[in-house]
Amino acid sequence: MRKYLKDIGVTDTDSTRLKVRKQNLLIIAILCAVVTPMWVYGAYIAGLGAVSLIPLWAIPAFIIGIGLLVITKNENYLLNITLLTLFANPIIQQWVTGGILKGDIFIFWAFLSPLTALMFREIKKAHFLMVLVLISIILMGVFNEYLEQWGVYVDKDKKLWLRVINLSIGTAITYGAMQYFVRNIERKKEIINQQEQRTDELLLNILPEHVAEELKVSGTTSPALYEGATIIFTDFKDFTQYSELFTPEELIDELATCFEAFDEIVVRHGLEKIKTMGDAYMCVAGISQDKESVVYNAERSILAGMEMAEYIRALKAEKLKEGKAYWHVRVGVHTGDVVAGVVGKKKFVFDIWGDAVNVANRLQTCSEEGRVNISDTTYHLVKDYFHCSPRGQIAVKNKGEMDMYFVDGQVKMV
Question: pTM value?
Answer without folding.
Answer: 0.59
